[in-house]
Amino acid sequence: MRKSRMARHPWTIGRIWERRLPPGMGCGSDLLRVSTAGRVRAGNVASGRAFCNGSAERRSERGGRCMRDGRVRALRGIVVPLVTPLRPDESLDEQGLERVIRHVLEGGVHGVFMNSTTGEGLCLSEEQRRRALEVALQSVDGRVPVLANVAGTSLRNALRELRQAVEIGADAVVAHPPFFYPINDQREILDFYRRLAEESPLPVFIYNLPMVVGTGISPSVLSELLEYERIVGIKDSSADFVYLTRLIELKRRRPDFRIFIGKSHLWAAGIWSGADGGLDGVSNVAPRLCVELFEALERGELERAVELQRRVNEVWKLYECRSFLAAVKMAVSKLGLCGPTVSSPILGLSPEEEGYVESVLRRSGLLELQANEREERR
């Protein structure tokens, strides 16, 4: 074994020892990280070899992956769970996807989350999810991190999605606990994320989505998961502000742990209290407004943040439609970015519901803003 040496990485706090290990461990490199507190966290050796099979091409990518890992670990701001544009026959609309990505990047978002709940990820075929992620990575072209959803009904399914995300080139993965079969013990959630963290060569974000999964992730489980280096943050869509404050308290133990709020009406209060950003479907519709809210909070401009939060809340009224998926897709369609088609069996909006979406966009000033931007491009 080569002599240990001290190193400092920009995405960690303090120093870590590095020791050489067989290829495939850690963040795509051959390093075992041992913190000065004596804790050891590294990927499973066998799985690491499966993901990083030792080929010359993979070895040449390791340095770049570690740099991307650092950017993910430093991620703050507005991450958009991107809608997935579909043609009327429900095939992937790649040109529409490129337009939506251009729209949110021009709005200044700090990250893109593919195949999410808003993106109808679990309604899409495996090939559609794969191609959507490929198109996103090509369109984003390294400007912001691209996160991929790897949720499923079992650990095995999540790991299959994880391998695909690694192969395509995602910067990080996001996973809520397995759904459909009820989780009756928090130890099952702990084991799911522990094994995902051990298998993954990418940073892992936890996704707390109790209304879909049927149970939330307890603060005690999260406290244990903070010990895993691969687990870098959480998207909390519980809409429970008391729970959010518990997460912020846990962050004191690990300041680099990222907290993203999944309900945009809580952004101002949550980010002001110590969360790192927002991750909600409204950022597809009003990316610039969402980013302006985050930036106002960063500058400490509380009065402006309150006004911007009020405007975000107006856009959030899209969620009062019968189907928020269809409503957000219709709103993006009204902005001229893609069609309104949603995955079957989700019904499209009725004429009355479509009128409601248009009224939300008009009250928010988004239709006028989009028209002005089109005029400027001419």
Structure description:
The chain is built from 16 helices and twelve strands. It is of the alpha/beta class. An eight-stranded parallel beta barrel has the order 5-6-7-8-9-10-11-12, surrounded by seven helices. Strands 1-2-3-4 form a four-stranded antiparallel β-sheet. Strand 10, helix 9 and strand 11 form a beta-alpha-beta unit. The protein is globular.
Quick description:
This protein is an alpha/beta fold and 378 residues long. It has 16 helices and 12 strands. The protein has helices at residues 45-51, 56-73, 94-106, 126-140, 155-168, 186-199, 210-213, 219-225, 241-250, 267-273, 282-285, 287-298, 302-316, 324-334, 351-363, 366-377, and strands at residues 5-7, 16-25, 29-35, 40-41, 77-81, 111-114, 146-149, 172-175, 204-208, 231-236, 258-261, 277-278.
End-to-end separation in angstroms reads 63 Å
Instruction: Provide the spatial order of strands within the biggest beta sheet.
Output: 5-6-7-8-9-10-11-12
Give me the oligomer status.
single chain
Low-confidence stretches: 1-56
CATH architecture identity of the largest domain: Alpha-Beta Barrel
Structural class by secondary-structure content: alpha/beta
* Count of helical regions: 16
